[in-house]
Please model this.
Amino acid sequence: MIYGIGIDIIRINRMEEVVKKWGNRFLDKVFTANELEYCYKKYSPYLSLAVRFAAKEAFIKAMGSGSSLSLRDIEVINTRSGKPTINVNKKLEDLFDNHRIMNAHLSLSHERDYGVACVILES
Model:
């Protein structure tokens, strides 16, 4: 059964502008060390940062109101096959248990100027 669906779209150069303006002050507030390491190994780190930011926003939308998550609580990782997924850490595990959420499905995509993320939470 579907618990919630969230989607978010972001202009990739917006992420570049924010990072250039605020630097680590922004990055450390939004992304985990693992996410930053992954993104900055890429040819286009702003693209990777942007779709991860969109994934975090989509996740919050799928959860609905009432959850007190920070963007850093939501970590986007890739499986060995390269598939993006939400890392269910201790805080998310507790949240999932409280809401009877069994799975989080994540899809990321991008095209030139925009990145998009879709999250489906399954109970």
In short: The longest helix spans residues 45-63. Strands lie at 2-11, 75-78, 84-87, 103-111, 114-122. The mean pLDDT is 95.
